[in-house]
Known about the structure:
Blueprint: H1 3-7, E1 13-21, E2 24-29, E3 33-38, E4 42-43, E5 52-58, E6 61-67, H2 68-71, E7 86-91, E8 96-101, E9 106-111, E10 115-116, H3 120-125, E11 132-138, E12 141-146, H4 154-160
Parallel strand pairs: 2-12, 6-8
Antiparallel strand pairs: 1-2, 1-9, 3-7, 4-5, 5-6, 7-8, 10-11, 11-12
Amino acid sequence: MPDSEKTVKQDPIIQLIVFRLGEEEYGIRIEQVKEVTITPEIARMPKTPPFVKGIANLRGDIIAVIDLEERFRLRAAGQEMPAVSYTMAIEAKEYTIGIMVREVPQPLSIQQSVIEKAPEFIQDINIHDKYIEGIAKIEDRIIVVLDMLKLLTPSEIMQLQPKAESSGSGSRTKA
Length: 175
C-alpha cells in the first residue's frame, strides 16, 4: 500500500435532517430524530415556558412539543405557525420531545469536514447553551447544525418530564 493512502483519512459522511426556522436553515443529525409526522393535536400545559406548546400523543407516547422559532426568537412579529405543521420526535435518554417546524424536514448527506466549529463569539454569548454543533456551508447555503441533546437546560427537562406518581408502579393503563 503506498504511503499516501495510509495518511489520507476517509472523510465520514453524516446525514442531517434539515428544516427552516424563520428564514434560516437548521440541521440535526439523523440519529437524533426518531420520526417526522404531521403535528398531532396539542393539549396546552399550565406553568410551562411560552415555547412549550403543550403535550401530544405520538403513537401512544405522550411527548412535550416545543416551538424552536419561539425558543430562539426567530419568528417575525405577528407570524404564526401554519395550520399544518410538522413535528420531529427527538429521542434523548431521559425524554422524547417534539420539535414543531413549518415545512417537511429534508434529509441531507454531507461530509463531516463541511461542518465548521461555531465562531467563538456565538459560543460565548450562549455560554450555557452549547447546542450549536457547528455551521455547515454547502454551496450558497448555510446550515446551523444543532445538537438536540444539549438544547434544553436541566431545569427545562425537569419541567417537561411527567411527574412520577407516588402509586408505586408509576404506569397507568387505560383502555
